[in-house]
Amino acid sequence: MPAPTNTLLIEGSFEELSDELARYLDDVQKKQSEGATSVQVEITPLLEQGQKDEVLKKLVIGSTILNFAPEKEFIAAYNLLVHLVRQSPNHDKLLPRICQNLCAPITSSPTNGSGLALSVLTTIFNILTPDNDIRYHVFLAVLRVIRGSSSFETLKPQLKNLDSWIAQWETDEEDQRKLFLTIAEVATDTGEEEQAYQYLLRALRTIPVDEASSEEARSLSVRALKSALSHPTHFDFQDLIALDTIQALRKSDATYFELLEIFNAQLLDDYNDFKDEHDDWLDEQALDDSLLYRKMRLLTLASIAASSQSRSLPYQHIAHALQIPSEDVEVWVIDVIRAGLIEGKLSQLNQTFLIHRSTYRVFGERQWTEVQGRLDTWRASLEGVLRVVRLEREKMLGEKEREIREVEDKVNGGMGGGRKAREIDLGPD
Which helix (H) or strand (E) holds 358? Predict the structure, then answer.
């Protein structure tokens, strides 16, 4: 995969190397079929006339046969072709065609073909300057090869460079969207659903506000929403609902948007009402009701924990909210803790869940009111503690003052008696 820019060094004049590559292409072609047009014959007069660009066009067109070249010769042959193409001022038109060829199956090496193609594409990527926008097309080719080989792990370490590459290439929003969607498709094909969802969101963010209601925006928005709903461990819908394209579903796909609002902020009862109102709709949209029902139970428990003023929930309350038997409460609480939605401790003795940490799913006027109520309660509690501390302090100071006075009185009384005694003793002198 891409690394710092490299230099590709191959000795020989343009004419010599072009003729050598043409002869090699003809040899590979002859092994596949007889009677094909000779690349060497085509480029010989062009070389004599000094028409380098025409020579390169013929070589690039003929290079499709390299996918049939022996595995041990594949990389060397492609490196020679890339070296020749780089000498043309129009290499930006020729390199994308080479990338296209490399995305096709490497017939001579079904097992290692993707690795060979990635090796050549990496070389092309690295010999281009960082700000060369041809790198964008090369990277798209890399993604297509990776998708064909289901090797997303190869790509992951490079994604951290994506933002800087996009800035260097000065990629417009449409091309960014194409890039993000390609990455999302690669991730989906290899089971990386969360990565796919994140790049799908990035693609949606490239759509201008005035195009938020377009068919493309609608299609991507529904796709992202279904992905978020169907992912068993995705519970935060704020990043999705904040998008203009998603808000546009309020008009184009009102049922989808209603379901999103339920998962964003509402409870299990609301989900049940939705199902009653839209009978068979989930099946028609290929959404798994059992998975959604489970997620809604987890989210409901997270919500009632966050809104609890006492920071504790009786088992009976949980069972009612989740519509489950009381004996199943502990299993569901453990599942919510494992999902990272809340933290706490189960008290089997008191049949209570003690809440240590909880987070609001959304934060609006209702949540501000709850926070204000908690703050008022805490302030009243603190004021009560301060009053008790103040009274105890005053009591302690009062007792200390009394003790000091008592000591002083005793000292003063003792000293007075001593003087009187001495006066009596000195009297006879």
Answer: strand 352-358
